[in-house]
Structure formats: structure tokens, C-alpha cells
Amino acid sequence: MSLKQVQYLIYALFAACILMVVLLAFTKFIVFLWLTLAFAVAGVAVDLRLWRCPHCGGHLGRDVPKYCPSCGRRLDDLQ
Fold first, then answer.
1. What is the mean pLDDT of the chain?
2. Where are the chain's structural domains?
3. What are φ and ψ of residue 64, in 5° steps?
4. Tell me: the pLDDT tens digits for 46-69?
5. How far is it, in rounded angstroms, from Cα 9 to Cα 74?
6. Banded model confidence at residue 78, pLDDT cuts 50, 70, 90
7. Angular region, 28: left φ>0, alpha ψ -120 to 50, beta rest
8. Environment class of residue 72 by beta-carbon count within 10 Å: exposed (0-12), middle (13-18) or buried (19+)?
9. Which one, of 42, 43, 78, lies nearest residue 60 by Cα?
């Protein structure tokens, strides 16, 4: 999976969290709370597991860098 795909997956999971919170606020169904938690855990897990430099395997952090913070190599996959 490319870094761009991982980035979109993380964004989609956290967008799903926001949607579940809005649905929870309007409907008060407890199932939306559990879905929010599940999407949040999945988003964090994907971030920690897949948001890594393809060269050295170091975590890329919270932003979208042009260069790996660990090894300094260019991340052409994100351009």
C-alpha cells in the first residue's frame, strides 16, 4: 500500500469517527458510540502500523513530510 493510500485511509477512518459522533448526537443510539471508538482505534492502529518510511521503517509523525524525519530520504511516494 502506498503512503498516499495510507494517508487517505487514515483520513477516511477519522472522518467516519466524526460522522459517528454527529449521528450519536442526533439519535442517542449507543451503537454509534461503539462505532466511533472502533473507527478511532482502527485509525490509530493504521497510523502506527502503516504510516512509516518505505526506506527505513521509521514512523513519519503527524504531518505529511517531504523527507523522512528518521533517515532524511525523500518521500517521492507522497508527491
1. 92
2. 3-78
3. -110, 95
4. 999 999 998 899 999 888 888 999
5. 22
6. low
7. left
8. exposed
9. 78
